[in-house]
Amino acid sequence: MIDRRLQVRIALAEKRCLLAQQRYPQNDQRLLDPLQKLADLYYRAGRRCQALELFRRCWDIYQISGCRDETRLVAILEHLAILLSMDGRYGEAKPLFQRLLDIRTKRHGPESLEVARALCHLGTVHRSTNNNREAEDLLQRSLAIAQRHGRCGDKLRSMIYANLTGVYRERGDIARALECCQRSIELEERLEGPDTLKQAGRYNNQGRLYLDLGEREKAEACYLRSLDIRIKHYGHFHPDLVHNLVNLGELYCLSGDYDKSERYLFQAVAVAEKTLSPSDPLNGFVSYHLGNLCLARGYYESAEGHYHRALENIEKAMGRIFPEVGIIHLRLAQLMQRNGLWEMSLEEAGLAASILEKVESFDAPEKREIDEIMIRAYRELGRHDEAERLERSAFGENRKGESRKIDGDHGAC
Predict the structure, then answer these.
(1) pTM for this model (two decimals)
(2) Which among 154, 71, 160, 144 is positioned nearest to 108, based on CA atoms?
(3) What is the mean pLDDT of each run of 10 residues along the chain (413 residues)?
(4) How far apart are the first and last CA of the chain?
(5) Distance CA 169, CA 173 (A)
(6) d(CA 321, CA 342)
(7) Which of 7, 79, 272, 364 is the most exposed place for a label (fewest CB within 10 A)?
(8) Is the separation of the CB atoms in 180 and 165 below 8 Å?
(9) CA dist 68 to 60, 161, 311, Å?
């Protein structure tokens, strides 16, 4: 639930906005102050779609009215870019963050904390679009500046380490990712305490890393702690809860507790429908994990529907060359095999390979899955020469002639 005082402030701000719109012309810069204050309150309340709409309106008014208030410009640009990123519209967010960096460099100097913050935001966008090398470079530059500011840079360093956690996880360097995550948690606890909203995000990241290591009990404890903090602050309907609910659904699916997985994933659907915009890629990730659950339970027709919905949403938001797009094609290849549709399985596996080989985080387990699916499909279709060639190139001479059966549940969630 939203804090009662925040609800009152939103109601008052809405009245002020309405009065201002009645008093001033459509693009008068005097509208900026009430609109911006209301947008900020919507953002704090988790009403991101409304906040995004109002900050867009502020940006339009700023440009049309010829306003020259640079402090206001920076505030509008930063909020608008962050909200666009949250909505998965990284192509629109990136030039705004770049402009923000240029303004802050000119205004505060290249070694300022303001510039470090802008570099961190820009690095976050690159990480989200799987440009991990560029992301790491920007985040390390940001970290170097923040460290030179001593304790004044600790708050920013906590945010940088949280983003580096994602960079190193995507690279498969889980030990380094855990180290960054722990540093982020320690800094945040020292600055704000153990149960802040930012800390909830850190615990969620830590749970993901423990899951990568197969330590499911530690992962569950981190996920539940993160969810508990967010529910205490937000109530049961806020966009940030979707991450927690999806991660718990994935964890219980992997553990074979399908009923509990279903319960958390259905909660994620309910929260997403109320709080996310239709274009938010997080909707696609919810569908993807529902597909995994249906696949694990043997509900193949339902799984296929969820996977195609996930593909449509994620590909539209993130582009075709994105890890999860390739992974969904891999899951569809598995699904086609289980239905004995060998040609379609081969086609989906080929799509997965062509996408994932262009992705920095493409790793050996995924490639092995694809190769095994394709080898089996070639054999079932009587294309033994192609199966032998792929087997030799993928697994070496010691595997020649050996037919490996795909584990039906491997990687299903």
Answers:
(1) 0.82
(2) 71
(3) 80 96 94 96 90 96 93 95 90 94 96 96 91 94 96 95 93 93 95 90 95 95 96 90 96 96 97 90 95 95 96 90 91 94 95 86 72 94 92 65 31 34
(4) 31
(5) 6
(6) 24
(7) 364
(8) yes
(9) 13, 35, 43
